[in-house]
User: What shape does this take?
Amino acid sequence: MNSVNPFDTKSGNRPVILSGIQPTGGLHIGNLFGAIKNWVAMQDEYQCFFTIVDLHSITIKQVPAELRRNTLEMTAMLIACGIDTDKSVLFVQSHVPEHAQLAWVLNCYTGMGELSRMTQFKDKSVQHSENIVVGLFAYPVLMAADILLYQADMVPVGEDQKQHLELSRDIAQRFNHNYSDTFKIPEPYIPQTGARIMSLQEPTKKMSKSDGNTKATIFLTDSDEEIKNKIRRAVTDSGELLTEKDFEIFSVNQESFSEFIYSRPGLGNLISLYQLATSKSLNEIGKDLAGKGFGDIKSIVADAMANHLNPTRTRYNEIRKDENKLKEILSAGAEKAHAVAFKTLRKVYKKVGFYAL
Assistant: This one.
């Protein structure tokens, strides 16, 4: 494969996208279908920076050995899922010191009132009331530094991060107003497709890696048998069987399918999983699932999902074995990221008046 220079803006002037993920726990199918597949699809159209944000992760207490291991496992899994380090820059946040350096400067241009209004800080303060640290309060400023260092045009954001992106935009505009144009003003990236995967045990809640019920979440490292067992034990309901006519209606009226998922979330989640695992249309799914009982549907979905995830897990296991190669990949990624981040930080330092040697 020919290497693509992600910093060669002359070749098509591709917009820059920055996205990060915390190395806290394993990736699950919600991460895969909701975010990572979109990241993989972006790589030919955008200059992509994907960072494993370990600095963000320590706002909650971590076990050091686990954090180091999770960082390497996250790297291996992202590559196994299709992140191509010849096309994109994959790096660990703490390997590029400019993130923390710019965050300090931006802290001095961010109001206490702005940060105290952040919903995520309020929520996490309740969840982790025994460990409310300054880092958790200033988390959005570090996120702004992550984005602004690379002059990102767009940032993929979920519902829980929109407020943080708005703050990043406000900080950038404020700095530009005070010192002339320095940062691009990032826009939210709304993917054309995305999937909201629900818990297998509480299908009205999103699937989560922190769910205490291990049967509720399918991790990308789960074996075929573990995947099948979790889906076979998924919570459904006792409603009527679906007909092919139902699926025909779903296929021409997405709103009716959304209403069905809302009214029968357990079965709706299984159908969504089957659609993601097979890429079949709702009409085609109707031919496979219509008239079948819940036990048969679970078995069909379980086999399809296990078959879909098997190649990714196999590739992950191969990649994870070669720790030296992973370190080389991360070192190369950090070097590329640093080359861009340093230029931005140097410009910022000059504008705020720091004396350069």
